[in-house]
């Protein structure tokens, strides 16, 4: 992810609180605050309650996932349902307050899937690949919207991510990190194709798979992601912008599982800076979910240079979705990658931070649907 991509330095950087954007997004479920004036004390109390509830729900959800008491069959990660347990639907809000337009899952699905026809598409199967530190959990809104539209969706937990149990510090190569994805794509049926969607460092991961299995990938979508050229590593690309991203350098915490006389084994993020860095336009409840779900990012895969050919990687149709309010991978870096390795088309999610699946899920969904309909030229 963006945090993986600044230059490695042993220099200590003092942490400081960066200024928030002057107009932060409304908290999901609190649209009433735009229709009447509330005291600042009451607003702070409500925000505090919402965040506490979100964190509690996230912890409970993780507990269910890890213990197999809540099957979640929308992901291809390592999850094992309890035999004989009936499939449960995800809980829905029972709040009587006016629901916020910032949370599309609370709106009628007809608003985003009306008149949607999937017949005749080259494929209706999406494979979602998270960024560094994230997991399959981050796609929960996108999964719901796509499935409501009749699409088949799999979200993958890469090695040492999400609920994949492997120790992040022990990952020594990109191939090892991406193995759950390569295994999944390799096992696709004869003639079956998918649309790969990569976010953040997941962009480098889908490029790696496109080189291996170009005939199994109909299209590739990069969302504020590392779209590299052959011979580049993720670190190479983003180190060019290292000096201009002070917030990223503040947030990085290098982990040395093999001792400080050896290279770092992983990178963690300062929890106090997550909201400003990754979720500056996202609902508070999603930022809270991420704060208890994110894991360290393995360092070795970030250093590895990709080997991409025109025959394989170059044969797959690529599309890029920009996030202009991204503080982790600034828009200047996104545009630099696009200019160096032009995709077929570029889209822009106005107002999106680094995590559009949280900040602009409905708009992201519409773009994904639009991309499925783009015919071959």
From TrEMBL:
Any one biological process term the GO annotation gives: jasmonic acid metabolic process
InterPro entries hit by this protein: AB_hydrolase_1, AB_hydrolase_fold, MES/HNL
Organism encoding this protein: Tetracentron sinense (Spur-leaf)
Name used for this protein in its record: AB hydrolase-1 domain-containing protein
GO molecular function: methyl indole-3-acetate esterase activity; methyl jasmonate esterase activity; methyl salicylate esterase activity
Residue ranges annotated for the AB hydrolase-1 domain, each copy included: 126-364
PANTHER family: METHYLESTERASE 11, CHLOROPLASTIC-RELATED, METHYLESTERASE FAMILY MEMBER
Sorted UniProt keywords: Hydrolase
Keyword Hydrolase (UniProt): yes
Stretch list, region Disordered: 16-39
Record carries keyword Lyase: no
Gene3D superfamilies assigned: alpha/beta hydrolase
């Amino acid at each position: 992810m963006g945090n993986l991509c600044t230059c490695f330095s042993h220099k200590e950087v003092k942490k400081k609180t960066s200024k928030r954007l002057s107009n932060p997004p409304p908290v999901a479920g609190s649209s009433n605050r735009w229709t009447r004036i509330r005291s600042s004390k009451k607003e702070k109390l409500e925000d505090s309650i919402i965040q506490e509830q979100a964190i509690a729900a996230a912890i409970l959800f993780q507990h269910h996932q890890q213990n197999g008491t809540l099957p979640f069959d929308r992901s291809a990660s390592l999850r094992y349902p309890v035999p004989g347990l009936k499939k449960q639907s995800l809980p829905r809000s029972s709040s009587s307050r006016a629901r916020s337009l910032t949370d599309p899952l609370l709106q009628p699905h007809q608003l985003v899937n009306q008149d949607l026809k999937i017949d005749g598409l080259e494929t209706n199967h999406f494979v979602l690949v998270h960024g560094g530190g994230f997991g399959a959990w981050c796609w929960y809104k996108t999964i719901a919207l796509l499935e409501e539209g009749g699409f088949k969706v799999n979200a993958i937990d890469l090695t040492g991510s999400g609920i994949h149990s492997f120790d992040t510090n022990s990952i020594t190569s990109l191939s090892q990190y991406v193995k759950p994805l390569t295994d999944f794509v390799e096992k696709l049926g004869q003639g079956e194709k998918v649309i790969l969607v990569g976010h953040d460092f997941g962009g480098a991961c889908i490029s790696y798979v496109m080189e291996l299995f170009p005939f199994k990938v109909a299209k590739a979508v990069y969302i504020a992601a590392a779209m590299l050229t052959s011979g580049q590593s993720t670190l190479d690309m983003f180190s060019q912008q290292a000096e201009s991203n002070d917030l990223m350098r503040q947030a990085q915490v290098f982990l040395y599982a093999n001792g400080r006389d050896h290279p770092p084994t992983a990178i963690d993020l300062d929890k106090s800076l997550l909201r400003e860095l990754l979720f500056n336009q996202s609902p508070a409840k999603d930022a809270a979910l991420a704060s208890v779900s994110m894991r360290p990012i393995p360092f070795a895969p970030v250093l590895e240079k990709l080997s991409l050919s025109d025959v394989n990687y170059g044969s797959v149709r690529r599309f890029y979705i920009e996030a202009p309010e991204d503080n982790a991978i600034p828009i200047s870096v996104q545009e630099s990658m696009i200019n160096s390795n032009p995709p077929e088309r570029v889209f822009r999610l106005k107002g999106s931070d680094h995590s559009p699946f949280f900040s602009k899920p409905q708009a992201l969904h519409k773009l994904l649907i639009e991309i499925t309909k783009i015919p071959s030229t």
